[in-house]
């Protein structure tokens, strides 16, 4: 212990020996707990989660500097070598990344010069605080761009650059709750977990709505659930691309359902567009997300389709709603209407930089490329006899969960039950997909040889027509 800071010291490791860089969690060391509390290590199936364990399989310990300058030189060299090896592992991990919707293709070299500044946009983007090292001018430029994209006039919107899509959801649902304090939150079962977290955080009544096999909200079920709660306003989370299947909820049908059920002006819609919020506007046949429709807010993640070295996001809502949520803060000389206090002032500059470089046309091209490549992947998987599905407006290809966890980790695939997905982002080329397919097909040829392991059935997840298990092929 040093002062009140607890530090794990591993002295031998500074004397020439290098500690191992953490690679990934060793699956054998992780306790998997199923929903009933029993252990469930190994196998594929429906795994539970790691609960209540602080597992230190690997860590880079923080050690106290030595008073001796000579040793300090060694320390610097050691730290440089740790960082160099870490960088190498990042390069390798970046090459084999298919499962998360992050565009890893960007070059922000020109912004390196800003790294020495502690840029913080605390407070309201539109009300300058006393803290001068900020980037509000970039932030507001980016917000204007998004407000234009989603068709809300400059003097009618309010928004801010968030830390991530989750913060956008937390904010959007909070605005809805402030507008309708006794409102019930409705969200489809396939909504992101942050939506249900918001309900828990704000102690809101939350109704889960069924989904169609595509992953879209089932508006027949929605209607019947609305009818049971006609006395309370409705706050709805509409998915502009679900996490696992990339399904887009039918916003127009959601609005129609609300109106038909008598909710006319007693609803608030938050659109969770974490990934597709920025892709949909560039897909010709896609339904429009627009503030010309009766929606209250839209959020998107900045590090997903745009691509950014740090997580970030954008939240846009109607100016008329924000007063309900705001408080003046004398100490800041600004207004508090955000979820967080301090806010990353670098993120808006990164977003501003990419929006300026690519513009609407650049994004449109990238969206088209992603959709084309996603179709290519889906077609090739199906041609190899692998169950696969791709929603119409999506670049998320869903397929049978690979039977080899090492393969899943190597390609960083996100899996749920019997399915896995690849999210085709701008950095994912046909060559990369070919490498992946080649490896998958080769590995797969051994998985079912023993006759005991069966091809997973994915009919319940994606529909029988996309499943090739023994029963459905
Ligand atoms: C539909 C959806 N909403 C929200 C989020 C949360 O975004 P973030 O990871 O930026 O917090 C995700 C993340 O994948 C998502 O898929």
Give an overview in words:
This protein has three domains: 11-89, no CATH class; 113-357, Type I PLP-dependent aspartate aminotransferase-like (Major domain) (Aspartate Aminotransferase, domain 2), CATH 3.40.640; 361-466, Aspartate Aminotransferase, domain 1 (Alpha-Beta Complex). The chain is 34% helix and 13% strand. The protein has helices at 69-95, 136-149, 165-179, 193-201, 219-228, 251-260, 303-307, 319-322, 346-383, 405-410, 430-447, 459-462, and strands at 157-162, 184-188, 206-209, 234-239, 267-272, 297-301, 313-318, 327-329, 334-336, 388-390, 396-400, 414-416, 419-423. Helix 2 (136-149) packs across helix 9, helix 3 crosses helix 4 and helix 5 runs parallel beside helix 6 (251-260). The chain is globular, with a radius of gyration of 24 Å.
